[in-house]
Each structure stands twice: as C-alpha cells, then as structure tokens.
Amino acid sequence: MNWFTKTFSSTVGRKIVMSITGLFLCSFLVVHLIGNLQLFKDDGGEAFNIYSHFMATNPIIRTMEIVLVLGFLFHIYDAIVLTRKNKAARPIGYADSRPQENSTWSSRNMGLLGTVILVFLIIHLWNFFVPARFGGLDGVVIENVEYDNLYLKVVQSFDIWWYVAIYVISMVALAYHLIHGFQSAFQSLGLDHKKYTPFIQKFGYAFSVIVCAGFAVIPLYFFFLK
C-alpha cells in the first residue's frame, strides 16, 4: 500500500483525484438539474415534492449522498493542497510572464471561484438540505400521502432578492470553474490529444454554460414570474 499512498499523495496523483472527483461532481450536477426541472411543472409543486421525497428515502440515493460528500471533500482538500504547493514552488511570480496572454482568466482564478462555490454550497445546504433531512419543513398531502413541502421552501427562498443574487452569481462562478476544470480534468487523466482536445474544450464549454444557466434560471423564474 506504500506505493499507493505515495502515488496519490504526489502532485500528479492529487491532480488525478481532482480530475476524477471533478467529473463525478459534473455528473451529479446533471442529475440534480434534471430533478430540479420538476419545479417548472404547473402543479403546485406536487411533482417536485414527490421527487424530493424519493431522493430523501431511497436507500441507494442515500448511499450515493455519502459518496458525493466524500467526492466534495477530496476535491476541496486536493485543491487546497495543490494551490499551496504551487505557491510554495513559485512564491514570487514572474514579472514578465504576462499571465493574461498565456492563460485564461478562469484558470488563474480557480481558487477564488472555488471559494465562492464553497460558500454558496454551505448556504445552499443549510437552507435546503438540512431542513429536508432533519425536519423543519411544512407538510403537504398529495393523493392521501403526506410529504415534506420542499417546494414551498423553494418559493419562499427565491422570493428573497439577495438569496437570488447569491445563487445567480455563484452559478456564474461555477460556469467559469467548470469551463477550465472540465478540459483540465481530461488533460490530467492523460486524455489529451490534438484530434480530440478541441472537441473536449467545446463540449466542456457548452456543458458548463448550459448546466449553470439551467440552475440560474430557476431562482430568476420564481423571483420574477411566480
């Protein structure tokens, strides 16, 4: 196990872990967005509340939540370690490196973008996940079955302008984070080829914009139209 520990504690190993956990979290974003699209159904929140109940009670989903949390923790921890290593290796930047010409804005500010996303995640989990899992939500009866009314919580939350602003700004930060991170993940995994890289870059860009725009439209929809 010594070689395993050394490999995945090295810079290359940590980048591989970052890449794998990052791509896994991308798959979670897709699933989460598809579920949240239930909010647009004009049924008073019935479909969304039933979906939320399923996600909260299904044993397979609950197990995957643990995997998801571990994915987040590994991703965040390795990001912090790699950032510190990079700063230690180059405590003073090159004066004439002209980073704006040699790299994208998002690649130079992944730490800032990640911090914005982490702060949003904490607020988001406290506002939605904690009440949904540990109580504090009103009940609603659907076809003679009582469910937690998470839909009402969504409506109330997205009626607050500053929460909507935080949500939308965080989705912009997430989009920039993904635009760089998606392609970088494939590169770290060795899947970098002049024939395929342009497609990966374009797909990553489209994925980042579409998914984050999908999330951002939800609070805007409730704030302005509901």
TrEMBL record:
<dbReference type="InterPro" id="IPR034804">
    <property type="entry name" value="SQR/QFR_C/D"/>
</dbReference>
<feature type="transmembrane region" description="Helical">
    <location>
        <begin position="110"/>
        <end position="129"/>
    </location>
</feature>
<feature type="transmembrane region" description="Helical">
    <location>
        <begin position="16"/>
        <end position="40"/>
    </location>
</feature>
<protein>
    <submittedName>
        <fullName>Succinate dehydrogenase</fullName>
    </submittedName>
</protein>
<feature type="transmembrane region" description="Helical">
    <location>
        <begin position="160"/>
        <end position="182"/>
    </location>
</feature>
<dbReference type="GO" id="GO:0016020">
    <property type="term" value="C:membrane"/>
</dbReference>
<feature type="transmembrane region" description="Helical">
    <location>
        <begin position="60"/>
        <end position="80"/>
    </location>
</feature>
<dbReference type="InterPro" id="IPR011138">
    <property type="entry name" value="Cytochrome_b-558"/>
</dbReference>
<keyword id="KW-0472">Membrane</keyword>
<keyword id="KW-0812">Transmembrane</keyword>
<feature type="transmembrane region" description="Helical">
    <location>
        <begin position="203"/>
        <end position="224"/>
    </location>
</feature>
<keyword id="KW-1133">Transmembrane helix</keyword>
